[in-house]
Structure formats: structure tokens, C-alpha cells
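Sample intake sheet
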Amino acid sequence: MSRWEFIGRTEELGRLLSAVTGGEGRGLFLSGTAGIGKSRLLREGIAALPTDRYAIWVVAASATTAALPFGGLVQVLPTEQPKGLSPAGILRWAVDALRQQAAGRPIVLAVDDAHLLDPPSAALVHLIARLDSTTVLGTLRNGEQVPQPIRALWTDDLVDHAELTPLDLADTTGLLTTILGGPMESGSADRLWRLSGGNPLLLRELVLAALGSGELHETYGIWRWTGRLELAPSLTDLIDVRIGQLTPGVRTVVELAAFGEPLGLELLNRAAKPADVETAEERGLVSVVHDDRRLNVRLAHPLYGEVMRRQCPVSRTRRLQAQLADLIEAAGKRRRDDLLRVAVWRLDSGTAQDPGLLLGAAAQAFARYDVPLATRLARAAVDADGGYAAAELLATILMFADRPEEAVDVLDAVAGQLDADDRYSRWLTVRGMISYWGLRQESTVEEMAVRAAELTDIADQTRVRAFEAIMRLHRLDLAAAQRLSCAVLDRPAAGVASRELARCTMAHLQAAQGRLALSGAAIASVEAEVAHWRGDMPYLQLALELARGTRLMLAGDIVGIDAIVVDEFADLAGAGDFRLGTGYLGVLQAYAARLRGHSAEALKSSLGACAVLATSRVYAGLAHAERAQAAALRGDAGQAAEAMADADRTHSPGMAVLYPWLEQARGAVLAVTGDLTAATEHLAELANRLREDGFAGHEVLVLHDLVRLGQAQLPVGPRCSDGHRRTVAQRLTELTERVDGLLPPLLARHARAVADESPDDLLAVADEFAERELNVFAAEAAALALHRLRRERAVTAGSAHDRLGDLLGRCDLLRTPALRLGQPALTEREWQVARLAAGGVASRKIAEQLFLSPRTVENHLQRVYGKLGITGRPELPAALRCIPGHGDGASR
């Protein structure tokens, strides 16, 4: 990790190179904060320039040379200077010396940290910038005094001046992936990006510290940061230099902001002198930002807060936190977050005496899915004699923190306090949830059913019945789940949370049955009541997302999936370490990427979900199944089989409702290993099982998998009254009457086109798939059409070939059985030639690499063209985009 690979900055690098090669002769100076990457960008730009065309000199000014005449340019000027020259004569001599060394080539002078140049060097740089055939490049650090000759470069319009902005999230993620040698989980990358402020130097120090402390670790090939920050001495020193010396008053301002941000400007002016607040803002230590109609004060950089909090003595820390709590309470806790903030300050300062405050704050933190903070506050509420309510909340949170054994202990400790039916019903549901999903005790369902009958109050009873219903759904007691859910919804006395939980159960069941319109309406109703149930039952969001995700996946609604993986819940779950939420959303993200044909992204997202859910007892099997699908799509039989084994190992019997996804993945794994017969038999049996369970929505997708294996005419299901069985194509057509949405008719048309061996219909279907971004299905349909047209030697094979190439250009590495049908039969040596040519390698270079004569290479390429059905001599790289399944170059 001594030198990081250069990532991003494509536009800035292009602008830097254009300043030299663009013909206008204008230079460029880049400004930015320390560590933002100015020097690295300058070095990369200089390294890309040909030294045979340009005379290039690079100098790095420093504080040690700033006091020496021409000390900044000592690296490029001759060691012996003529004696007796005037200052102007020395400048002319220096210019002549550089021109002589350039030997007629255009001069490029690059000055790193030009703000540190001594006056004669700065004057010389300005003079050089005025010469013909000379370009001056440079970097400047924000906040430093710039010599007047350097400032005059852009004020006199001799060079351009630009601000180098921080790295964005995408570039930061790419940098982390390169350095760690593997992808980083998106939530961890996002937190590191925010903490570093997009500054590569600070990011490097954060990563080094996290690796050194063991807080950055790899699971299933995905790097994940625990979120705990250990500040290395080098990072602390770096931030100390930025903060600089502080007066006591300014230090108080920065410390209050460090412990209290965002802090209202009015409140901060009460706790500190307004003049000190102004000084802190002028020095760039804090910033004042508008938030609605309020002015808030924040630290100028997140790491300032980390350093200030670590360096603040314990006694002063507790005093400042208590002072902040007093300020907010005196103002009346008017903002939504004030309760939570005051509770944390009271807890940290040792002044928390009100268990009600701690309990309310814990509930608020859990409603925001901040599991670590909610756990801490709830435990403090229990310790402060918060009674049964605090114990119930703590046990619930521990369940969603993957600590069910501890949760049971907390809940059983207050079993003697169940002195009312409402408390008993809540205890039953939380205890049942922990036992069923946390401890995998399936007998919990029957126990809850018996105990629910003992309750006399309808509201209390329906709460237990709603939980029983969703448990029965998950273990495939489908009729009972529907009956219980309807009973809850029919009871006007049922609480809002109980009713909406039952509605989620119905929405999930309706989606699996293919009644997507009813499912969507139910989901919308649950969302409309979110303000009324989130405070009581925030984890209901998981049931809602599972129902909504199931519906969107069965509908093939990729855009809909995109929307929910970036909504408020996704942000809250990621920031709050709510792993069940982020893990499931990662599965959805992988599913959408897979259907788009973005197999690398699908594999990365599924691996990330597996890493997040490594200790989960709920969705881990589903995550591994999606990983198996992504690996199979890429033709990686080994990883697909390994992922499927992990899915079987981690899948919970209490989540039997997810079996369609796991078994569909098993079919893909069998296919990628080459056993198409076993894959066909498995998928046919799965379709029959889904038919028996009434899961028509899932059945449609499984039947389509059979179509993709070329089995559109395979008999499936029971015999009809005429003694025959429906074919896959016929059954899909039949299901268009039962399953809602636009996807089933499209899949049925695909099946009929395969059964009829109609290239025109296949290409029409491919276009419709492409409109919905279902690029894998589109490419497979086009590949089969091309296969038919080649076999018939049709004149339209060329246009079909181009269409397939366009579709595969939207994807990355794909290796599916259907795509192999469109694959020409090239020899291994022809494939080698084709791969190199796809990378733009010249024929002579190909010949050298393959130890062939140029003439032999020409013959190979001619055969490639012929087997691809290409006439003339088009650009081979574009032509090879239609070759599926043969390496990265060919498939891209």
C-alpha cells in the first residue's frame, strides 16, 4: 500500500493534458486542500507526455527552498550561474539556459506547490509562461499566500485556474477496491467516503488505521468496515496541522461543534462568545449552513470532530455534553431529533436520571434503524429501572442485532411482570419472534396459537394472531396464514401495527400467487400508515420490503427495484447497521443487475449481501442463492456450486417461503455445470411444486427458465381431460390469465417463438425485453434467432448478428446455455486471434504473440469473419461483441 493506483479524475487529467497538447499553449494551475490529489494528478499528467516531443521539467517547491534565490527551480537550472549579472540579467540567462536544454522542443514546466516558490523563482515562472511554445502547469494549496507573479499568471490570462474538488463516491469506491484487492461493501465505502471528505490522503490514513486495528476485514471476498475508528498517530498529526493553534475561546467553539453538531447558531452563541464563533468560521474550522429556516453550525471536516473528541479530557467532555443537554432542554426540545440527542448527551455525561427519556430515545433510534445506538440506550433504560417496557424494547433490538440468546434472557427476566393482557400479548409476540426466527424453534407457532386463545381483549389477541399469520406464511402454512390475516383485518379493534403486519402477509402471499395488482394495493396501504406503526413496530418494515421486493422481482420491474434500494429506508438501514434490511436490499440490487446482464455488479452485490448477513438466521440462504445465480450467469461453475452449498447450509427452515428462489438458483447451477438434463428435470419438478402451492407468480419465472434451456415444448403438470399434458409454452400462455402484469404475456410469446422456431418472433421478443432492460433475456432470444437464421443461411443473419452485438454491448461477461447457441464454432487458435483483435491489437502484434506468420493471422481472421457471417472487412472489435461467452474481451 506504499503507492495507490491512480483512480478517477478522468476529466481533470484530460484538461491537464489538453493544456499542453491542445495547441493553444495555455497552462493550467490546480488549487485544492492538502491531500486532495493535486500533486498526484500533476505527476500522472506529466508521465503521460512523450519526452521526445516535449522538454519537460518538474520542480517541487518546499519551505526549505523558499528562502533561497532560485531555490524553487534549483532542480532544473544549471549549477553554475554567471557572476555580475543584474536580477533581470539572471532571469534572461535562466530562460536562455532552459531553451538551450530544450533543443527546439516545446517547454513544459510543472511546479508542484507553487505557493512555496521564492520570489526570483516565481518571477522566472511568470516569464517562462509568456514565452512562445511554453506551457506552465502547477499546483497550489488552498489557504496559503500565493506569490504575486504566480497569481498574475491567471489574472493576466496566461494560464487557466481550476479548483480540484474531492473524489466522489464512485471514485472513492473504485480506489478502495483497487487498494484492498477486492470490492468493499457499499455501506462501508460510503462511510469512509463521508469521513474522509473525498480526500485521498485522509482516506489512505483511515484505511491504514482500520487495517492495523483489525476493524477492516474480508468476508466472502467483500471488505467491510466495522465503523469503529482508530486514529493512527500520522492521521492525528495531519489533522492537528490543519486545525492549528486555538485560543481557549475558539477551542470551546470547535469542541461544542464536535460533540453537538449540527448545533443551532443561536444556541452556540449562548454557549460561547459570538466573536469566537466568527473566528472559527473564518479559519475554516466550522461552517454555518442553512437548514430550513434555521442556521446550523457544523465542523468543516468530519475528522476534525474525531480528533477533537479524542483529545478532549474526560472531565471537560462530560461538562460539554451536560452543557449541550441543558441548552437544548432550555430551548424546549423543539426539533424531532432533540430527544435523542439530549438522551445521548445525558448518558455520556453521567447525568441521565430519567428512564423515560432513555426509553423514548431508544425507541426513536430503533425507529431510525440505528441498531447500535438503540441497543445502548435501551440497555441504559433497563439499568435505570425502566421496567418491562425497557426490557421488551432491548430484547427486540437484540433480536435484530443477531443476538437472540441474549434477547431471550432479557425477556425471560421480566416474565414475572406480565400483570396485564396487553403486556402479555406483547411479551408473547416478541418472545415468539425471537424463538421462531432467532432460535429456529418452529414449535413456537403452535405455542403462540394456544396462548393467543387465552387472551380476552380483541386488540391483544389480534396482535398475536398477526404474528402467527406471518410465521405460518414463512413456513408455508399458506391457508392458515391467509385465514388468520383476514381475521385480523376484519377486526375493527385491531391495532394499526397488527393490521398492517397482517396486510404485509397478504401482500407477500398475493405476490407469490401472481395477484400483483392486489399485492401492490396492499403495500401502498401499509406505506400510507407508516407514521402510525413505525414507532410501535419498526421491524414491520422488513415484512413490507420482503413483500414489495417479491412483487417487483416477480414482475421483472427493475426500475422499481432501483427505487427502493435508494430510498429512505435503505439509507437509514445502511447508516444504522440494520443488517437484515441492508442485506435484503443487497439481494434485490443483485437481482436487478443480473437481469440487466451486469454480471460483475450482480456478483459484487450478492457477495456484499452474503457478507452483511454472515451471522443472520433469516436471509443468508437467499443471499447465497442470488450469489449462485450471478456466478452461473458468468459461467463460473465452481463458485456457483460453492454458493449453492452455502445457501443450503445457511437457509433457515423457518423461511421456507423463500424456497422458489433457492430452487430456481439450483436449476441455474445444474445448467452451468453442463448437466442440462438434470437442470431441466429439476426445474420441471419445481414448476409442478409451485403449481400445487398456488405460487403462479413464481411458476411463470421457472417455466421461463425452461424456455431459456430450449424446453418450450416440454410437457409439464398433470394430464388434462384429453389425456395430454400442457407444454411449457402452453402453460405459460395459460398463466397470462392468472398472473398480473406485462411480463407473463412477454414470457409466453418468447416460449411460443422458441417452440415455433421463428427468428422474426424471437427478434421482436428480444426488442421488447430490451425495452424493459431485461438484457439477458433479450440477448438469449436474439442469439437463438441468429442461430436459426444461420442454419437457414438467411440474408437477414447480418442484421440479427448486429442486433445481438448491440444487446451484448449492454452487458458484461455472460455465459448461458442459450447464448452458446449463437456462438460460432471457432477453433481455440481462432478464438485467441479473435480475443486479441477484440482488444484492438494489430495483426503483426497478434502474429508475434501467437508465433504465427502475418499471413496465417490473416487467414484466421478471414475464417472468423466467415463463421460469424460477416461480409466485407468491418472493424473486428465491434463485430466480436456478438460472440457470447468467450472471455472478457470477446463478451464485451
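Comment: Residues 314-331 form the longest helix (18 residues). Confidence is low (pLDDT under 50) at residues 873-892.
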